[in-house]
Structures are given as C-alpha cells and as structure tokens.
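thread: overnight batch results

M.L. [08:02]
morning all. the overnight job finished for the chain we discussed friday. pasting input first so we're all looking at the same thing
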Amino acid sequence: MRIRCVELRELRMSLRAPFETSFGRTGERRIVLVRVFDGEGGEGWGECTAPEEPFYNHEFVDAAWLVMRDFLIPMLLGRELGAASDVPGLFRPVRGHGMAKAALEAACWDLQARREGKPLWHLLGGTRLEIECGVSIGIQPSLLDLVKKVEQELTAGYRRIKVKIKPGLEREIIGAVRSAFPDVPLMADANAAYTLEDADVLRSLDEFSLMMLEQPLAYDDLLDHAELQRQMRTPICLDESIASAEHARKALAVGACRIINIKLGRVGGYVEARRIHDLSLARGVPVWCGGMLESGIGRAHNIALSTLEGFSLPGDVSASRRYWEQDIIEPEVEVTPQGTIRVPMGVGIGFAVNERLIERRTVRREVIAA
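M.L. [08:03]
and the structure it wrote out:
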C-alpha cells in the first residue's frame, strides 16, 4: 500500500470531570487525530496521545504536530509499504517522539486492516474476544469523594481500581480506599513523584496489599527502581521508564519492576508494543494497557492492543462515558456489568467514526499530500 495523503486535525474535547495527577489537572483535552489515505478510496485513523504540556514525558501536542507535519509525514508519503509494520523503519532517523510516530503507524494499521477486510485486533494477532477493564481515578477533592467514586466504579463492574497518589497524601488516599474496600484489587500510580529518599514511606505501602505501585520514581530511571523493588514486597510497575523493548529488557535484567504498563503512544506504536509484549510474555512478566485520556479512536486502538495474549491484567481501557459527554465513535465504548469490553468484530478499529462531530470540534486542520 502507498500513502498518498495525510490529514491532521486538532479537536477540543472537555472532560466530564477534571482529572488530577501528581503533576497537574486536566479539564479539556487537545486531541490530535491522524487520517491516512491510500489514493484508492482507503483510509485509516490514528490518534496522537501527547498531552497538552511536557509534564508526562518530553512530548506535547504542538511539538507532536510539528514533528509529524515536517518530518514524519514526508518520510511516509509515496513510499511503497508491504505492511503497516514497515512504518517504524521509515521513521528510524527521527529520535524519540514515540507518540507522534505511533499515531501515524496506528492509522496505517487501521488502513491495512480495512484493505484486508479484517478487524485490527485479528491482524495484530490478538486472541481475546473480551478484555478485562480497570479504572484510573484521579486525585479527588476529599477522601470522602474518593471513596464514593470508587464505590461508583465498582458498582459499574470495573475489576481493578487505580488511584493516583502524590507525596504527603499517599497513605491517606490508599488507606481510605483499603479501609472501605478491604478486598478490592487496588493499585497506586505515583507518576514519578518520589525519589529513593522516600523509600521509607513507599515501603510502608506494603501493608495495604496493593496489586502494584506504578512508576514511583523518576520518569527515566531504572537503577533506583531496582533498589526500591529490592526493599518492597509490593510489585513495582514501570510506565514512563519503558519507551522501548530495549528499556524493558534492561528493566527486567536489573530487577527494576515485576509488571509493565504498555501504552501504545509512549512506546512508539504497535511494532514496539508487540516486542515489549513478546519479551514480557517469554519471561512470565504480566503486562497491561495504560490510558492517556484518549478519544474513542485512541480507545479503539487500545482495545485492539489489549487482545494480545500477554495482557493478563485489567487495563485502563474504560467506557467512553467515563470521560466524554459524547465520544467521536459509534457505538461508544461500553463496559459490561462484568467489567469487560467486548472486542468489536468490524473491520479496522471496529467502530464508525463520527465525522460530523469531529468537524464541529476541530480547531485546526492541515492536509499534507505527496
């Protein structure tokens, strides 16, 4: 297949409720969509998961747009592709910028699946017809609000609760949830807010029987995580520190984690995500799919990724209505009362794209042609 044209769109989408982490509070998302055209009537959709500011990692919306427009798209246009898996090789000269690369690669995977008349998850080698869902809960105004929110999500069927923590509030947040729900599968996400000097307080979290503690230390660290893991019973899960299969290999070699969160954007696309998945599966390390407050297009890609065999833990792939009054796909993503999402059987990402709604929410658009 040959990509003849690429469309970039920026949408503004307001969250139903603000989402707060240790590094900031988000009320409105700037969503960047990518659509690739093959010149034969075929198209594919992707989403760039870069946040608004460079606080999660170095990537952010405006930089991703520039890198796609001025560097990556020119490398892609007009090139003959045997398959979407060829795309990362074209982008190799550009260092980093995984979220920008992943958006274009994902759109090409969607295009290939549509051209072959297959669901994307099937093309990827997925095996699951349902995926288990967890939920990520941001920092709430009060502990009472937090407990009520957890109760609401458990009632909705979610199989795992993740709470965001930050220094000075970690024991209060986790303790309140554990006290109210002694048996719920519970994990905590620190988003790199701590240092090894905080080892005592982090070790104290062992008493709460957490499934895992996600990314407690620096976003690019492996060695200090290894030292902390040696001191803790709770498994450490790495997120920001794993940007490639090579990072995953080194993390496991030094004992920096026992679980890995795979985010499609953070690792640069499906090809790299599958490498991390395969490495982890071979070593018996559980993986799960993380989220970045995606619209339905990004959420559909996360569903497809989560069908791979090694995704044995509930991910952060939840219902559209948790975040948006109206999502940009049809039907919207729904979670069953049993806390699962049924994998769509349609071709490509498996959902129809609501182009009229996308048009209404578009604030910026560029088309780059061969």
